[in-house]
Amino acid sequence: MERKYEFSWDLLGDVKEGRPNLGPMVRTEIYRLMQFCFRDVLETNYGSETADKLFYESGMLAGKQFYQNAMNEAENFNDFIKSLQSILADKAIGILRLETSDFEQGKYVLSISEDLDCSGLPELDYQICVYDEGFIAGLLESFTGKKFTVKEVDCWCTGDRTCRFVAKICKE
Ligand SMILES: [Zn+2]
């Protein structure tokens, strides 16, 4: 397929030059406005399951691109998590914690507090951070070279005050 919209980091532009007065920040609710409108339109056009799949895949692409363009190389898993923690806090995406790690099984539990996508939302009866699931999967895959599936198990929206994600290496 001839592509019109293939992602490249350059598309994010030179914000310093482009927004000399307003600067790089935008309010969280404006970011959410775009995300929730996308979700609505995708669901209306393609159904809930496909909307979730597209969000997950977009998150995954973003995670891979973020890893390539925004992160420094890490020597080992702990360094990787540490540098991820600091950049996610620095960019006000969320406060990351690695809760448990099982290297043998390739299973990790991570939590993100004050999550950009969902903290403060009304309570719903489902976890909503599908984009984050993909984002984490993309980051983990980029660092380890292995495919991951990531599932959010607790969310602000399900009454928890943090988002908790279970990440597992895909067994071939
Ligand atoms: Zn969440």
UniProtKB/TrEMBL annotation:
InterPro entries: NO_sig/Golgi_transp_ligand-bd, V4R. Residues 107-169 form the 4-vinyl reductase 4VR domain. Signal peptide: none annotated. It comes from the Bacteria. PANTHER family: ARSR FAMILY TRANSCRIPTIONAL REGULATOR, DNA-DIRECTED RNA POLYMERASE SUBUNIT I. This is V4R domain protein.
